[in-house]
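Next up, a specimen:

>
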Amino acid sequence: MRGWYLTFELVSLACIVALDARYRLFLWADLRRGLVVLVTGVVFFLAWDVVAIHEGFYGRGKGSAMLGVEVAPHLPVEELVFITFLTYLTMVVLAMVRRGLAAGEGR
């Protein structure tokens, strides 16, 4: 069914946002710094994708679960959401690990 992939990505992203908001891990810990890091990561991975597409390493996948909307040739809108999710998830997990390690040192 069309749009399922994007729907699952957005639900997953919303779960990470809720986790971040609840425990103040990344964006909720320092919004300005967090946004700079998030945007930097998204731009980096987007540039990586553009180069890989240009060099022919990969292209747009086929699937009935995708919307079929491209923001650039071979770059579906789902990829932008995935890159954002991946970057955000990485930073939230890093903040969780750091917090856990810091709590362990305080024992």
Observations:
- Helices lie at 4-23, 31-54, 77-105.
- The longest strand covers residues 70-72.
- The chain has a mean pLDDT of 93.
